[in-house]
Amino acid sequence: MAVITNWYTMDNKAGVDLNYVQSSVTITTDPAVPGPRAKLGDRVQGNNGSEWVFCIASATVTQYNCVAISNAYAATNINSTLVASNLYFYGFAQFQSTVANTGDYFWALLKADSGVALRASPSVQANAFVFLSFNGNSGSFTSSVTSNAIMGVQVLASISVSADSPTEARVFTYILPALNMLVAGATV
User: Fold this and answer.
1) pLDDT at site 73
2) How far apart are the first and last CA of the chain?
3) Torsion sign, CA atoms 152, 133, 20, 155
């Protein structure tokens, strides 16, 4: 298994590119692109058992980060305040650009059998519980704390680099953050 970089739809919806960030600049300056390529909130089924939702970035979103998505389909890097509000659902930014800037459109991955790239700290080990990292890396994961667990995410490969980097995971159900939930000695 490996991180997938060429996600595609299985339900033949026209104009969908799951790997692409549609710039808000293009929409306002290019008459050939009169608006977003999909409607906010549209959902599609993709390869590898994946499910996606079309969003707009409400702040800069970093590639491979976990994102919080509002009921207006505005997405931003997840943080503890958003999780505590209980007003969001969650996904992953799997686009191939480095970032989606404020006002850009992209497809957020909600779940997939494998091949999901997620940004994680060097401490993350395969098959361990993962936890939200809120220390300057909103949207990334760690396995070195025992609170703020994320249910539904299984890391498939350990990380052995010195900085936060992508690793492969599977998101076998919709992501469920458990803010301040304690997990001691548990494995997936």
Assistant:
1) 97
2) 18
3) negative
